[in-house]
User: What shape does this take?
Amino acid sequence: MDNILNTLPSNLVSDYMKNGRFIEKSYQKNEIIHFEDELCEQIELILTGEIAIERIGKSGDFMTINRFGKNSVIGANLIFSSSSHYPMTISSKTESKVIIIKKDLLFELCNQYPAFLLQFIRIISDLSVLIGTKMKNRVSRTIRDSIITYINRQYHLQQTQTIRLTMTKKALSEMFGVSRTSLSRELQKMKQDQLIDFDSNTITIKDKALLQ
Assistant: This one.
């Protein structure tokens, strides 16, 4: 994902960093950034580290809904919503650094810089697709079906039968709504069935019947 600030004049970004209109902030590992039901009044552009959306159960257990890395934007789909409260907890999974852009400044940038507005709309759209994909993956689908759907999408995007994983296997299992152990077990079965081969970073499609 491209850094949304690259759509702005470089001298503007530098000036805003110096005068504090863009706020750089660091978070420690496992630090909670936003609580569920907190009002969203800013977006956070991730410079380094990994930030996760999590659901905290009644027993205090955490379920990771999604993880976001460098250049991702947190809060883009909420900040101008009629119900702009965080539906889940946002926390830093590693030491992370972000740039905070407050709501009023964000609105100003969207009005003044069309390229920034276009990229911001693209980020919101990508988040909508991500949420839709997650919901689709969780409805009456086997782990193998989820893997095949992911493989197909990445095959068409990357145009190669050896696709590079776009996330860790842990994040992939969370997207499918299963444990990492279950995902690894199914990948191994698919390898034994000579459908795929895989390593820590790639999945190679061996049987073209998987492609749709």
Q: What stands out?
A: The longest helix spans residues 114-138. The two ends are 26 Å apart (CA to CA).
